[in-house]
Amino acid sequence: MTRSELSRLAVVVSGSVPPDTRTRIDRGENPRLDFTHLQSHGATIFTRDSAPEGRAFLRRTLGDRFASAEAVAEAADRFDAIFCVAEDIGVPVALALRLRGKRTPLLVGVHGHYLVNRKFRLWALAARHDAATRFLPLSEPIRARLIAEFGIPASRCHTLCVPIDTRFFAPEPAPEADPPMILSAGAAQRDYPTLIAVMEDVPARFRIASGSSWIGEATKLAVPETCTMGSAGSMPGLRALYAAAAMVVLPLQDVIHASGYAVAMEAMAMGKPLIVTRTGAPADFFRDGETCLLVPPGDPAALRAAILRLLENADLRARLGRAARHLMEERYGMESYTADLERLLTDVSRPPAQAQGPDHWVRRPRGG
């Protein structure tokens, strides 16, 4: 994808972007994110800081977080398409465009969190009839829900997962530790009580990298001395923890929206074997026995068995890690992500009669 092609794409983020983000990425302190990568290829990024003071209609009426919707709607005629990275900002942008009478094609990322939200449901049921709106769910299970529950035409519902920076998160040599260290990370929808329940029966050290308020809740649990909890401190710090880990265990609550995708992708890009809970909306890259091991939700016995299986089988750990790294490089890196968007932008610019099937532009692995 060339810079000139992406210069006609607007990318909308609901929050603010710290002014030193690009500098920190260039210094290797932060990984590239989807919108920062698109910006480096010429896309225009809109945040809640983009709307000029005094003209932010939606900011005054609906709150500060809607300022980005006002800003992009005002500039809509400059772009071939507007890409909202998640549904929480997609609905405000759709409203702002409608208020201004704009028909710029709208691409809305769908993480699934808002599928039960009344306002989102009302908008989606109306938007299913709008040929200028495309839905970009993060996984096939979320796509299936959009089609089945909302009646979204399959031809306007395209799976597009958030990419991973495979240069920042890359395999690093690390000495084998005795006992081995097992890492878990993140806070949202984590089922750490189930993980803690198996620790005393596993010959390993555990590290839970989470700096959220959840740690305060965890102090109420009987956490073994073999477990250390706390923030990794920085993205390089988290990367170092991945590198030192024998495996990454991702215990999740059984939710029906995207959960744990970022940590899983980071671990897989680092070439680490992964154990993850099978939820109601599993990522497409969770391939049981190929790129990870899947366990049932809230099942300490199954989780314990999976951990012991990996600890006792170095060949299986190596095979899962290699396959995971290969998949992240092959299908979920930044370059593949921008190529997917290029094909999608080409499709949305065609008259409806010329548009192809729903998945003609989606990456396929080499050799099938």
What does it look like?
Helix content is 39%, strand content 12%. Strand 3, helix 6 and strand 4 form a beta-alpha-beta unit. The chain is an alpha/beta fold. Mean pLDDT is 88; it is low at 351-368.
The SSE string, one letter per element, is HEHHEHHEHEHEHEHEHEHEHEEHHH
Q: Which class of secondary structure composition applies to the elements?
A: alpha/beta
Radius of gyration from CA coordinates: 21 Å
Main sheet: strands, sense, barrel: 6 strands, parallel
Strand order of the largest sheet: 8-7-6-9-10-11
Summed up, the helix count is 15
Q: What's the pLDDT, averaged over the residues?
A: 88
Level of helix content?
25-40%
Q: Can you tell me the residue ranges where pLDDT is under 50 for at least 5 consecutive residues?
A: 351-368
| Strand percent estimate | 5-15%
The number of distinct β-strands equals 11
Termini separation: 23 Å
Shape: globular
Characterize this entry briefly.
The protein is an alpha/beta fold and 368 residues long. Helix content is 39%, strand content 12%.
List the helices and strands and how they pair.
Elements: H1 3-6, E1 9-12, H2 21-26, H3 34-40, E2 44-46, H4 57-62, H5 67-74, E3 81-84, H6 87-100, E4 106-110, H7 118-127, E5 133-137, H8 140-150, E6 181-185, H9 192-198, E7 205-209, H10 214-218, E8 227-230, H11 235-244, E9 247-250, H12 261-269, E10 274-277, E11 293-295, H13 300-311, H14 314-331, H15 334-348
Parallel strand pairs: 1-2, 1-3, 3-4, 4-5, 6-7, 6-9, 7-8, 9-10, 10-11
